[in-house]
């Protein structure tokens, strides 16, 4: 780990347009702090192509994202596709409501614009493991698969407050922008995610630039370090999945699962937690590569809903990315 040298810093600051709309004051404060401590080039993208062009032409500038988790994930995935993620320290100044920046908080990034911007300038690079699927998709925090909504888990959560569903079966925000997501069972293991109500974009005018579909469900993924509080509603039903860890069969299609959690752990391994229908306690296993297959299923990785897919393999890339965090 090393701290950036303020005298040599040059930053490419990518400002999420949604962040400018929802909290322009925090964006202005963070921008001013960064300008006061380093040579900065400001990128105000109107679409994903502009972000990709800016990153391709950044030169020696270090990328800084001002925005929520989805904006951070878009930049990280662009760098992964360019095969530059492992070699470039990434910084983020979280801007947005708490559910939308829960991944940044979990990673240890301050939520205040001043503290986060100062961490960009004076912080320390930390090498972190990352999950990468066979298509090159990156998971920074963790992912989970709920069971029991439709055949093979192929549909998503029940409808939100407005009683409607969005594209691909995702829960659509009702009035006020709240989106209902799946309840979770009462005993998730370490690293498993818990679903929360999510503050949505609030209409077409807030369609995020990192997603091609309007009204995509934006779920908060909060990584837990222990059992959840009592009183949560169990997931109804099950999903039939074949799960393999480093080639070893964990569960097969004849043993329905109610929940699967996966996150990068220490030492270049992933922590796999499988809740089965017929067991009181989940199965936990560490592996470098995990493959899940079966009837079409959806999963939530960080803040994004993905699927349906019939097969997906995640591999741990040890120290696969660098995040700038506060010292100490």
Automatic annotation (TrEMBL):
Record's compositionally biased regions (Low complexity): 156-182
Domain of life, per lineage: Bacteria
User: Which stretches does the entry tag as region Disordered?
Assistant: 154-210
Q: What is this protein called?
A: DAGKc domain-containing protein
State the species of origin: Streptomyces aureoversilis
